[in-house]
């Protein structure tokens, strides 16, 4: 597409929505439609802004929506091989005076820069996430004559600290539970929580991204924006955990996930990394609900599965399970094999070996200690069962992990 055509659609978009638009060739501005306050005082030029935005989004094969640490929003669309159309900055909601002053106070100590930042933010156009998606789809169609779906747009919140490590949620069960509230529009909140309950991961992600931003939900720390978002994130994870339990996820698993997500959350010191982490954490929990829903068992079998899960470090006998569900041992064995697809002994052994794999990977227990803890007859028996199920010895597995 030639520059004259790009100029026309850019000017049209600027006049309709009053959002700055820049066309870059490599890292040089070819043309722009903007006002004098389009560049943040924290950057020397819009060229520097582009370098910052494309640092973690170099391919830009489809429209990419980016929110910076400082709440500015940008839309990037690649044109050909070396041109990029940059739309922004703009805000997705109006910042309250208290929120704005708090954020500016955290950004710089220089009074002159604070004054410029205040003027900068007050000049930014407000465009909500839903509208910017329509703008992206329209611009992409006008440039490429191709129809995209809204889910094709990349929401690339900048993760300045790189990928966030998600701990394996199986080592430690915390006893403390949080009881915090999640401020939001009632219907938006109900939809998001319903998607979690039903295990609909993709629907959850869409609703979560199009819903209000954390900064819109209230201020839970007047002096620290990061702390405020952490508190809101903890609230959200807590309520999401309850929805996951209502959706059938075992409460021990759900609470373990919740605790470890919150512990990891506290270690993050970058706002965009934090927001990305919260979305990923709850999306993973939602996916676990979906996988769990695929396993539909009768009430007696579910009772046995729960008992095995909670008593994995004990000796589990068929007679105890039969008494638990008030069924004859032979019939329980038949029913279990019919529904689960393996015998009780096979299932218990496999569950113990899965637990052993966790202990081998994430703890310093010796093979002898693990075999004793999981109630195997001796270390030799433990090694035999482990190799039978995994294909390798427990010692080799520990060395590999």
Bin the strand percentage.
Answer: 5-15%
Q: What overall geometry do the principal axes of the alpha carbons give?
A: elongated
Task: Tell me the Rg in angstroms.
Answer: 27 Å
Share of helical residues: 55-70%
Using the coordinates above, name the CATH class of the largest domain.
Answer: Alpha Beta
**SSE string, helices as H and strands as E:** HEEHEEEHHHEHHHHHHHHHHHH
Q: Give the tally of structural domains.
A: 3
* Widest beta sheet: strand line-up: 2-1-5-4-3-6
- CATH architectural type of the largest domain: 2-Layer Sandwich
Distance between the termini: 52 Å
User: Based on DSSP secondary structure assignment, what is the total number of beta strands?
Assistant: 6
What do we call the CATH topology of the largest domain? Answer: Beta-Lactamase
Briefly note the structural class of the backbone: alpha+beta
Q: What's the rounded overall pLDDT mean?
A: 81
Uncertain parts: 158-184
Helices, by number, come to 17
Search tags:
401 residues, alpha+beta, Beta-Lactamase, Arc Repressor Mutant, subunit A, 3 domains, six-stranded mixed sheet, 17 helices, 6 strands, 56% helix, elongated
